[in-house]
Every structure is written in C-alpha cells, then in structure tokens.
Amino acid sequence: MRVLSSVLLLAAVLFGGAAAAEEARLVESINAYRSEVQRCADRASEELTPLAADSRLVLPVQGMGDLQQALARAGYSMMTVQAISLSGPRDAPAAMQALRESFCRVLLDPQFVDIGVSREGRDWRIVLARPLLDGRLGDWQAEGRKVLEQINAARGQARQCGAQAFAAAPPLAWNGTLGAAAENHSRAMANGNFFSHLGDDGRTPGDRAELAGYAGGQVGENIAAALPTPRKVVDGWLASPGHCANLMNPRFSELGAAYAVDPQSDAGIYWTALFGAP
C-alpha cells in the first residue's frame, strides 16, 4: 500500500461567504479536466474516465491523523491513496487553478478511481484513492465478453456523449482477433506500467489490430485502468465523452476486449476494448 501527501499554501485574502456545494463543484472540475488530453510536465495525458465521489474519502481537513488509519476506520480498503491539502482558495475555481498548477500529475494519474473533497473555510483536502481488487475476475475472455454485454446494453439506448447526441446503435459482435489484440495491449500496459493508446513499441491501435490479423477497415480503442469490474469500466467510459462516442459509434460492428493484471504496476489492472468494422 502506498500513502502520499502533498500540501500547497496560498496567500489568503478575505472575501464573502463561498457558494454552497463547492466541494461537488471541485469534483466536477477535476473530472472535466481529466476528460480531455492535457499537457503536464511536458507530457500529454490520455483521456481519463471520471473519478467517483466516495463519502469514505471525505476526511477532516484538520486533525485527521494517520491517513491509512483514517481510511480503515471509514471502511475503505485502499491500495494507493494521495492526499492534497490546499490553504487559501476561496472557491472551487480557485482550488482547481491551484491543482492544475501544482498537482497536474496527481489529477492525471490513471491509477486513481475514487475521490473525496472536504473544506473548512479556505482550507481544502482532496483525497484520491484506488481500492484493493477483489480478485474475483474470470479469465480475460470471460471478462471481455462481459464488457461486450455491458457495451451492447448501453448501445441499445439513445444517449448524449458530451455535446454529441447518439441514437441507439445495433449490438456489436464478439471478434476473437480483436480480443487477442486487446489482451496483448492490456498485458503490455500492465507489465510495462504505462497507460496509453500508443504502445511502448510505437504501435497504434490500428497497427495492433492489423498485426493480429484483423482485416477490418476501421478500428477504435477504449482503455481504462484501476477499475475492478466490467460494469465499472463501461460506466466510466459512458461518463467520458470521447470514450462514450467510440462506444456508441454506429459504424462499429465488432468488438474484442480484455484485461490484464500486474500487482507491481501502478494501476494494478488495465483494460482494452478494440472496436472494429469489417
């Protein structure tokens, strides 16, 4: 288990009372930031699924004591946690600006899946965490087909993906070649401890599909990290405009999906879904 803590002090200037629900506004701002490709420390991030608000991570701003013990008392079985303390921001936009400037790497770290924000006046505590995996997953083919089932259930309903509206789309068929390519990329991310559509060998999703023997003319890819079940993976993709658009794209007709686990990696578990059109 890894416990990290960061503190940023800002000059405070007296203003009037803050609007209600600033903590929720900050969570929304963080997730909006994660949903787009960002530049951080001269590196570009991938589009990330949103963090889930978890009340167990809403910890006292002052006098919390040991972070790991506090989470244990709250009933959160953590694998990794990072706590950020801010002093000075008068509202959620000011807090978000401070986070972007000083903690972009934390906000854009794909290993975190849950978040809790607490606030007392101008003092803030932001806790990002990843829970322990429950270890009850089947093999990659079985879980990949569960991803397919969840995606087809989602495609059966019209929905909004960010600013783009999609009608209900036909179900996707399982494609074993795309599944094998998805498993290879999930395994590469897990063993190589990276999170990217671009492989460490420089290959793109289309390259990987072609190398695996897929003859389709169009390929798309969704990836996820740290999420423990197919349901949570697909829910995360649906809440992310770019991932959602791939998932609802009526031009795709086939899918292969897989996961891979490496306990030594940052996120622990990595998922890939490859969409195709023959």
Number of DSSP E strands: 13
- Report low-confidence residues grouped into runs of 5 or more: 3-20
Query: What percentage of the residues does DSSP assign to strands (E)?
Result: 25-35%
User: Alpha-carbon distance between the termini?
Assistant: 44 Å
Helix content, binned percent: 25-40%
Rg is 20 Å
Could you give a quick summary of the protein structure above?
The protein is α/β, with parallel strands linked by helices and 278 residues long.
Name a few traits of the molecule.
single chain; 278 residues; five-stranded mixed beta sheet; globular; disordered N terminus
Give a description of the structure.
- It is a single chain.
- The chain is of the alpha/beta class.
- It is 34% helix and 26% strand.
- It is built from nine helices and 13 strands.
- A five-stranded mixed β-sheet has the order 1-5-7-6-4, sandwiched between helices.
- Strand 12 and strand 13 (269-277) form a beta hairpin.
- Helix 5 (140-155) runs parallel beside helix 8 (230-238) and helix 6 (176-192) packs across helix 7.
- It is globular and about 60 Å long.
- The termini are far apart.
- Residues 3-20 have low confidence and may be disordered.
Record the SSE blueprint.
Blueprint: E1 2-9, H1 22-34, E2 39-40, E3 43-44, E4 52-53, H2 67-74, E5 78-87, H3 92-102, H4 104-107, E6 114-120, E7 123-131, H5 140-155, E8 159-161, E9 164-166, E10 173-174, H6 176-192, H7 205-212, E11 218-225, H8 230-238, H9 241-248, E12 254-261, E13 269-277
Parallel strand pairs: 1-5, 4-6, 10-12
Antiparallel strand pairs: 2-3, 5-7, 6-7, 8-9, 11-13, 12-13
